[in-house]
Amino acid sequence: MTKISWPAGTLLAPVPPALISSGTLENPNVMTxxxxxxxxxDPAMTYFSLRPSRYSHEIISxxxxxVINVPNLPxxxxxxxxxxxxxxNTDKFKACGITDYTTSANSLLGKEYTVGRKYSIRSESTTxxxxxxxxxxxxxxxxxxRPKNDLRAYLQAGITSWQEAELVDADxxxxxxxxxxxxxxxxxxxxxxxxxxxxxxxxxxxxVCRKVNKSTxxxxxxxxxxxxxxxxxxxxxKNNNLKDINxxxxxxxxxxxxxxxxxxxxDLQGAEYEEESGKLHWNLHLKAGEMQTLKVKxxxxxxxxxxxxxx
Length: 311
Description:
The protein is mainly beta. The chain has 3 helices and 20 strands. The chain has a 6-stranded mixed sheet with strand order 12-9-8-16-19-18, with no helix packed on it. Strands 13, 14, 15, 17 and 20 form a 5-stranded antiparallel sheet that branches. The chain has a 3-stranded antiparallel sheet with strand order 2-1-5. The protein is elongated and about 115 Å long. Mean pLDDT is 84; it is low at 216-220.
């Protein structure tokens, strides 16, 4: 065999690689270190080297915590993957299939969880929350606006595959964009449709305005012994978000059981109209910074002397 001479260097082989995990259960990260070792036996000290440019360096510098994991042979592909991908734009735990800290099993009385990690819970007055399981699901976001009752736009999340999460009726904290949004109640036992809707609270970035015009003389005329009033309702919605949004707008025309009062829709701006309830419904798509205006017009005929609230 021909002798091979290597120049001087800082490498020492063979040494086992290690998986360095950091972050939180909600936002974990893992990287591959080419080697690690023991600095001192008493006190026990170990080490690994990490460049400041690495994403793990940013996380560990903030938390001051990390775990050195010695992988076995089944994790060989994960070791290779975590050494060439960055956690800035890749969930490496999920990509490698090593996300389950906790296992679960169904029983006759419910669902049982086996926690796969040890936790130190200090004796103090604060509450410590431990995430037992994290499930990803597809969510469709839209806004619900009912300007006749409330000029605020409420963000709503529609979960189409909620049955797969095996949810139970309970209070739930809602986080949106990694920030606490509101508290809601999850009620799968009474959800009849394929989509479960969660309310995420009002969004101040959506401006809503509703005006009623029924006082302009040109829009009022006398018909026989009765009076006819033409009512115009103007609804404006402005999207001040940096992203496009979908919005459900609901308003209504007045309804009556008095045979002396006649209500007729004149212009509904393409709304879905439920005549029995008077409900008007629109589905709008607003681009970032866009404002849309809806103008609804209807007439009301009633005997002279009647006082009606046509708001």
